[in-house]
Amino acid sequence: MKTKLLSFALLSVFLISCVDDDIKSNDPQLDFYTKALCRYWWIDEFLDGNSTVWVQFNFEPDGTGYELIETTPPSGIPVREEYPFFWGWTSPKFNSIGMEYGPGDKSNIKDLLIDGAILTGFLNDQEIKYLGKIKSY
């Protein structure tokens, strides 16, 4: 239990340190851009060698999220992995976010642009384009 509390505390410190100091919690743009990001499940699908890879990002307004990766090899038996993370805005222009999956395991999306149900940017310097699917639970 102490380990879980320590891990949560360390991840919380990351969130506080990755959020730009110029972003104020009462900034109306913060709410607008957070809702735009959190409204959808962001999905991409591509071929990696002979395998089909399906990726989904889910961002929640409370700064948590997860990444699902499902890989289907030629054998047809998919393997699904889920990676939870904490996220925060890293720019007062709301065009970049930082994500921490665990201690020392960080990712970022720079030049983030949400245009309706399309999210583009650079995930760890790799160009990305995800299509949004409205969340329904």
Report on the architecture of this protein.
With 137 residues, the chain is of the alpha+beta class. 20% of the residues lie in helices and 51% in strands. The protein is built from two helices and eight strands; from the N terminus they run ααββββββββ. It has an eight-stranded antiparallel barrel with strand order 1-2-3-4-5-6-7-8. Strand 2 and strand 3 form a beta hairpin. The two termini are 30 Å apart.
Q: Please, what is the average pLDDT?
A: 86
The description of the largest β-sheet is: 8 strands, antiparallel, barrel
Beta strands, count: 8
Query: Helicity, in percent?
Result: 10-25%
What's the overall geometry?
globular
Oligomer category:
single chain
Low-confidence stretches: 1-20
Termini gap = 30 Å
Gyration radius over CA: 16 Å
The portion of residues forming beta strands comes to over 45%
Which sequence of strands runs across the widest sheet? 1-2-3-4-5-6-7-8
Features:
single chain; 137 residues; alpha+beta; eight-stranded antiparallel beta barrel; 2 helices; disordered N terminus
Could you provide a short overview of the structure?
With 137 residues, the protein is α+β, with helices and mostly antiparallel strands.
Blueprint of the fold:
Blueprint (H helix, E strand, L loop, with lengths): L1 H17 L9 H11 L1 E9 L2 E9 L4 E9 L6 E11 L7 E6 L2 E11 L2 E6 L2 E9 L3
Antiparallel strand pairs: 1-2, 1-8, 2-3, 3-4, 4-5, 5-6, 6-7, 7-8
